[in-house]
Each structure stands twice: as C-alpha cells, then as structure tokens.
Amino acid sequence: MATGTQVIAKARLMLNDEVEPYKWKTTELIDYFNDALKRLTFEVDHIIDPSTTAVVNISVVAGTIDYALDTRIWTVESAQISGEESYLTKTSKGELNDAYGPGWRSTASADRATPTLYCVDWKWGYISLYPCPVADGTLVLTCTRSIATDFSTANLSSNTIEVWAPWHERLVDGILARAYLKRGDATYDPKASDRFEIMFRKLIDDVKRSSLRYKQAVRPRVARVNSAFI
C-alpha cells in the first residue's frame, strides 16, 4: 500500500522533476492527485459507504421534506429512518407528482407521517422524503462517494488512499495527464498528456471490470427448480 508521499514522488520521477527548483509545485501535483481520485471514484462508484456518520447520517426534522446531501456523495444507494425496520423506496419527483399531485410536498400536520419514499431529483444536492416527517429522527444512507478527505501538504503521508492498493501507483497516470497540460516551455506537452490520459482511462476501465466481477461474485444465487419434480 502506497502513501500519498510515495505517489507524488513517483510522479516527480516520471516527470523528471526531482531536483529543486521544481517545474511543478508540490501543491500542484497534490491537486492533480485529488482530481485523479475524484474522477476514479465518480466514474466507478468505487467507494460504497454505509457507516461514515458525518457523510451518511442526516438529522430529520418534523415538518421538513428536503435535506442537503454531503457534497462528497455521488449516489444514494439506500435510505432508512433509524429505528424503522423497512428501507425507504426510491422514487422520482415525476412519480410523486403523478401519484400524489403537487400536494405531496405539503408540510401540513394532516399530511405528516413516517416517510416511506425518497427522491434525489427534486433539488440538486438534496434528498426529499415522502410523506413529510411527523417526528424528528435520523436518516441513515448507504451511498457511493468521493474521497473523504482531500490530500494536502499537511496530510500527504497520513491520509488514506481510499482505493485498492494495487491501483495506487497507477493513479500517477492521472496526475501526469494533468501535469503535462501546465502552460510553460518546460511543462506543456499535450501529446504526453494524451498518452497518460489513455493509460488512466485504462485504469478506470480495469476498476470497472473488477467492481463488476465483485458484484457478480457477491450476488445471491437463486436455486433453480426442475419443473419435472413439481
């Protein structure tokens, strides 16, 4: 498993930029590193998080329908009111409008109950609950998200790279794809940028295939019934 320091050092080695004064500032390379991680997690939905409280727990307030999602969340996979046995069913604003009319957003006391449905397309970056909550509580999500904490000069060695260890060094391709677009006689090389972008896209494709194999491996198998014995 690599550290952020090791990834940046590998990037400098491949850029032939190991001697000060550097052509690329360390802060620039770290910015490219964060960008590569966010691109990867966005395109693959690689980080599935059911437990990081600061990200997946939302305080529910009686009479309030809409709640801001943490900005690190890419997709909501499931939602449940803490203490309730059933998960909320995902729906859309169109389906809610068709089924209940515009009144589904009413916050009147008569329209309040324990939510059973949620949608994430009423307002960008928000989750909406239906019916309007009748009581305070906690909404617990399972989500896919971006990296929890950006890398910086202060945490470069201590922050966790939240992707599978064998892919750590290949993140360098994403760093170099950005680095070679820096304007300057000693830094700008669009052909090199394109070359490393192709390799970084190959990493994204490899992660997608690996994630698909994992999902297929953990999917419950349904036993087949031979109709001759029914």
Overall description:
The chain is an alpha+beta fold. The protein has helices at residues 4-15, 26-44, 53-56, 93-100, 171-179, 190-218; strands at residues 47-49, 57-60, 66-68, 73-81, 89-90, 112-113, 117-119, 126-130, 132-133, 137-145. The strands form 3 sheets. Strands 1, 2, 4 and 10 form a 4-stranded antiparallel beta sheet that branches. Strands 3-8-7-5 form a 4-stranded mixed beta sheet, with no helix packed on it. Strands 6-9 form a two-stranded parallel sheet. A hairpin with a 6-residue loop joins strand 7 and strand 8 (126-130). Helix 1 (4-15) packs across helix 2 and helix 5 (171-179) packs antiparallel against helix 6. The longest helix has 29 residues, at 190-218. The protein is elongated. The model is unreliable at 218-230 (pLDDT under 50).
Keywords:
disordered C terminus; alpha+beta; single chain; 10 strands
Helical content, roughly?
25-40%
SS-derived structural category? alpha+beta
Residue-averaged pLDDT: 92
Residue ranges: pLDDT <50 for 5 or more in a row? 218-230
Rg from C-alpha positions?
23 Å
* Strand segment count: 10
Helix-strand string: HHEHEEEEHEEEEEHH
Strand content: 15-25%
